[in-house]
Structure formats: structure tokens, C-alpha cells
């Protein structure tokens, strides 16, 4: 049976229980921090590269797919920054918005100079990234590495880089629920989209464990509560192939991202999250030395 183009391959229980990073001795809390920081880096790079959010989202899912499971890539072998850049490069190649290796390398080099992985709007808009260049020697070395990591990602995910996203489904479901006639429909759609974007950064890797239809349903549920729009009193989510238990899990997962992000910010305040193999090794030595 041909898989639906609206569905994604989901991570198995075995893949969620462990990962290549953990098998290489990286503790779960460190893996979670680095993976989250890598996701933030991917989002910031996508914005600086002027990519549509849909393309950035696809890159984020590819980034997560590569790192999940015992057969997945290990942060002890590939730095999160390398995986992030290669995910962007690979995804844009398959999109109407291809980006050159030089553009990607320059943007990541610029981001490495910022004190935070969540740049301010001013930092993203002031145009410095477009004027930032690395030396030719550095560029050639990073270009080779970019291609190597890209090939490793393709091999690890079995060349399956198709990503179905929930954004269009979300709009379709809002129409089906006849919510666009509401005076606050625009605000509702914006908040639902914001929840879908937030879910991309979830430490539970919600885009790897749930189908787009369920993600869209949960985003609508949360957005409607936030903007105080009444939804049908019947169990409308079942029409969109989502049961109550899954809806509840996704609602909690989406809402928990903000608190997790704040915990990470406080944990790493004044320090950069280790996004290279060398930085990660140094951080683990520091942790072990302080035990």
C-alpha cells in the first residue's frame, strides 16, 4: 500500500528509547540541550537566509530525524551546528529556494559570533549576516564538511527526506470548522501557526511522533482557547483522525516548550551550548570534573 503524501514516517518506540549520541556516552540532559540549541540555530539560520517557514520546518524535521534512534547520527561524531547547516542545505536543494554552500556557511559563521542562539529581531534584520564572510580557506574546509554531513544524513534517513507539514491542514481544518467567519479568525490562525512553529522545537520531538493532522488539531484547540473562540461541543477532533488521548498529549507537549526553553536559557546563561564535537567534549569533561 502506497503511503499517504500527507503522512510522515514516525519514530518507533525503540528509536525514542535511545540514540546514537547516548550510545556514545552523551547523557540525556546534554543531548536534549544540544538538540534544542541546534533546532534554535536552524530556525535562526533559516530566517537569515530568508527562507519560508515551511522550508525551515522541513529542515528542522530532517535535523531531528538524523539524530533519533540507535542507528541515528551521534553528536559525538557530528556537531549540532554541522548537522543543522547540512539539513538546511539538503532541504533547500529540494525546494524552490536553493541556497549556495557559501551563503549557508557565511550565515552560520555570523551566528557563531552572536552571544545567543535566539537573535533579536534587530540582529536578524540589520543585514550584518549578508555582509559576513569567512576566508577562502575556511570556506573550502567547511564546504567539504557540509557535503560530507549531507551525505551522512541521506544515508542515515534512508534518503527519505519527504516531510509533510501541518500548516495547510490547519487552514483546511479551520475552514471545515467554519471558524473563518469569526471576527477574530485572523488572530486564531496566527496563534495556531505559532503553536505549530513552537512544536518544531519540542524536546519530545512532536513532529517525529505525531502526524500532521494531529499537530494541526492540537494547535487549533490551543489557539481557540487562547483567543476565546468557542469550538463545537462534540468531539470534533475525531473527525481529523485524532483521539482525546493524543490531543491531550500534544496540548501538554506544545505548552511545555516555553518552560523548557526558559529552563535551558537559565541553565546556559552566560555560556554557549556546545554545538561542535570539540565543544561538547570539553563541556562533558567540565561536568565530569565537577561531579
TrEMBL record:
Gene3D superfamilies the UniProt entry points to: Cyclin-like
Entry-linked SUPFAM superfamilies: Cyclin-like (SSF47954)
Signal peptide from the UniProt entry: none
Example of a GO biological process term: regulation of transcription by RNA polymerase II
GO MF terms, alphabetically ordered: cyclin-dependent protein serine/threonine kinase regulator activity
PANTHER family associated with the record: CYCLIN
Name of the featured protein: Cyclin-L2
Source organism: Pseudopithomyces chartarum
Amino acid at each position: 500500500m502506497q503511503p499517504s503524501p500527507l503522512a510522515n514516517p514516525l519514530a518507533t518506540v525503540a528509536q525514542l528509547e535511545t540514540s546514537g549520541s547516548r550510545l556514545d556516552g552523551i547523557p540525556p540532559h546534554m543531548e536534549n540541550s544540544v538538540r534544542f540549541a541546534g533546532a534554535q540555530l536552524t530556525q535562526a539560520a533559516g530566517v537569515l537566509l530568508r527562507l519560508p517557514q515551511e522550508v525551515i520546518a522541513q529542515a528542522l524535521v530532517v535535523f531531528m530525524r538524523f539524530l533519533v534512534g540507535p542507528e541515528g547520527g551521534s553528536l559525538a561524531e557530528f556537531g549540532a551546528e554541522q548537522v543543522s547547516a547540512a539539513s538546511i542545505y539538503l532541504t533547500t536543494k529540494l525546494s524552490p529556494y536553493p541556497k549556495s554552500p557559501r551563503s549557508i556557511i557565511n550565515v552560520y559563521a555570523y551566528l557563531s559570533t552572536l552571544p545567543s542562539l535566539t537573535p533579536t529581531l534587530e540582529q536578524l534584520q540589520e543585514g550584518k549576516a549578508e555582509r559576513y564572510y569567512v576566508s577562502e580557506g575556511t570556506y573550502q574546509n567547511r564546504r567539504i564538511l557540509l557535503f560530507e554531513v549531507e551525505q551522512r544524513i541521506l544515508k542515515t534517513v534512508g534518503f527519505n527526506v519527504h516531510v509533510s507539514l501541518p500548516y495547510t491542514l490547519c487552514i483546511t481544518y479551520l475552514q471545515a470548522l467554519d471558524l473563518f467567519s469569526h471576527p477574530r479568525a485572523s488572530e486564531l490562525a496566527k496563534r495556531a501557526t505559532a503553536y505549530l512553529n513552537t512544536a518544531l522545537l519540542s524536546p519530545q520531538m512532536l513532529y517525529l511522533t505525531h502526524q500532521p493532522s494531529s499537530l494541526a488539531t492540537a494547535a487549533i484547540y490551543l489557539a481557540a482557547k487562547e483567543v476565546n473562540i468557542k469550538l463545537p461541543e462534540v468531539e470534533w477532533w475525531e473527525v481529523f483522525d485524532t483521539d482525546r488521548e493524543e490531543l491531550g498529549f500534544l496540548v501538554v507537549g506544545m505548552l511545555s516548550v516555553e518552560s523548557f526553553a526558559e529552563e535551558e536559557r537559565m541553565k546556559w546563561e552566560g555560556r554557549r551550548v556546545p554545538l561542535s564535537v570539540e565543544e561538547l567534549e570539553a563541556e562533558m569533561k567540565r561536568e565530569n570534573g565537577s561531579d
